From TrEMBL:
Domain of life: Bacteria
Chain sites annotated for binding substrate: H113
Keywords: NADP, Oxidoreductase
Stored InterPro entries: AKR (IPR020471), Aldo/ket_reductase_CS (IPR018170), NAD(P)_OxRdtase_dom_sf (IPR036812), NADP_OxRdtase_dom (IPR023210)
Record keyword Glycoprotein present: no
Pfam family, any one: Aldo_ket_red
Family designation: Belongs to the aldo/keto reductase family.
Species assigned in the record: Agromyces bauzanensis
Location of the active site: Y55 (proton donor)
Protein name: Oxidoreductase
Site feature location: Lowers pKa of active site Tyr: K80
Residue ranges of every copy of the NADP-dependent oxidoreductase domain listed in the record: 27-264
Signal peptide: none
UniProt GO MF annotations: oxidoreductase activity, acting on the CH-OH group of donors, NAD or NADP as acceptor
């Protein structure tokens, strides 16, 4: 029988909600596998599922949540409005489509997936999210792939600050300035591509730290995120990897470890810079 895993703690959001610090990121998880893997994740101990309209697997996520052997209030479900639907009315329609697929009474967190400054519709998108929160359709609202200046604009024009900013973040791209900005504004930083899409895992330094702690390189990187207080949503395609990714809350990295990992910073992205979209 597998040893029990220390569960992910729940972090407080500025609006009074709480979010599990580590969740299951469902980007590029095929719809045909999604419900099964989400059920596996919940059985292992995950309570946070991160999907999006663009991922094409919202329906299967909703199925897994409805069938879960735990109370709905224990589970935290995130979805996102895709950039093609930015705009006030288009966002409201996109939300209705997502909720029809999820078939849930409410959504825990709804994010603007990308600002797309070239179309200049993200402020109107944010106004739509504010309305959805005011109507009680969504518990919390936030953004993804926003630079500080994008956030400053939506706050200046609406008076409402997002509670989460989900961005690409890993040891090559630690987003130090953005994390500090988010912290000053009581915004939780959430990391997508937390393992740089797996590319960083061949780094000898991480192998050495894995040997030191009796862990895997992926667990070292995920623990690095935890040490900084990031919310983190690694992808997985098997129960074994799901279990490995969640099992990072019963050890710690020391100051020397953190200093060594800091040396990996290059600024390299695996995705696009939000200002270039």
């Amino acid at each position: 029988m597998s040893q029990p895993i220390t569960p992910a703690p729940r972090l407080s959001l500025e609006d009074g909600a709480t979010i599990p610090q580590l969740g299951y990121g469902l980007y590029r998880v095929p719809p045909s596998d999604t419900a099964r893997l989400c059920r596996d994740a919940i059985d292992i101990g995950y309570r946070h599922l991160d999907t999006a309209a663009f991922y094409g697997n919202e329906e299967a996520v909703g199925e897994a949540v409805r069938d879960a052997p735990v109370p709905r209030e224990e589970l935290f479900v995130t979805s996102k409005v895709w950039k093609d639907d930015n705009g006030y009315d288009t966002t409201l329609r996109a939300f209705e489509r997502s909720m029809a697929l999820l078939a849930l009474d409410r959504l825990d967190l709804y994010l603007i997936h990308w600002p797309v400054p070239s179309t200049d519709r993200y402020v109107d998108t944010w106004r739509a999210l504010i309305r959805l929160q005011q109507e009680g359709r969504v518990r919390s609202i936030g953004v993804a792939n926003f630079h500080a200046h994008h956030i400053e604009r939506i706050v200046a024009e609406t008076g409402v600050t997002p509670v989460v900013n989900q961005v690409e973040l890993h040891p090559w791209l630690p987003q130090t300035e953005l994390r500090e900005f988010d912290e000053r504004h009581d915004i939780r930083t959430e990391a997508w591509s937390p393992l740089a899409r797996g590319r960083i895992l061949g780094t000898p330094l991480l192998d050495d730290l894995a040997d030191k702690h009796g862990r895997t390189p992926a667990q070292i990187v995920l623990r690095w995120h935890v040490e900084f207080g990031n919310i983190v949503i690694p992808k997985a395609s098997s129960p074994e990897r799901l279990r490995e990714n969640l099992d990072v809350f019963d050890f710690a990295l020391d100051a020397d470890d953190l200093a060594a990992i800091a040396s990996l910073e290059t600024g390299e992205r695996t995705g696009r810079d939000p200002d270039l979209d």
